[in-house]
Design brief:
single chain; mainly beta; 13 strands; globular
Length: 163
Amino acid sequence: MLHDFGGGNDGAFPAAGLALFAGALYGTTYSGGNPACGVTNGCGTVFQMTQGATGQWQEKVILAFSGTDGIESFATPVLDQAGNIYGTTFEGGSGRCTVCGTAFELTPAPGKWTEIVLHDFGATQTDAGTPEAGVILDPRGHLFGTSSLGGSNSNGTVYEITP
């Protein structure tokens, strides 16, 4: 076992797969992290696992969702060639709907990560909503994904986010 999630600040319930980049593993958790978003068990996290000199793996939370930037990620993260992380959350966002979600980008900087919310799902009545799956990234930086709700009939969508 590489890591046993504690359910607190380090996250809980990693429901998605992992991404491998430059020897590190990246993933998301459905719960844990920041408890301030109104969800009983926390808003979820994005984490990084690195292997130390002794071979032990160490987890570092690089983002604890706060609610307005998303809640509950079921999505395997995607990384571009620069090491930027892209993903989605199942809920959260601006609060204009009950279950909306977000698409986000995390950019590495020395000692920290910078987050940008790329899209706040459910912002309009026919917008995509509740993206359960992650995204794919084309060579031009466009993100493509699906949402389980939203669209003109509320039956889901295929969407594109252009940088």
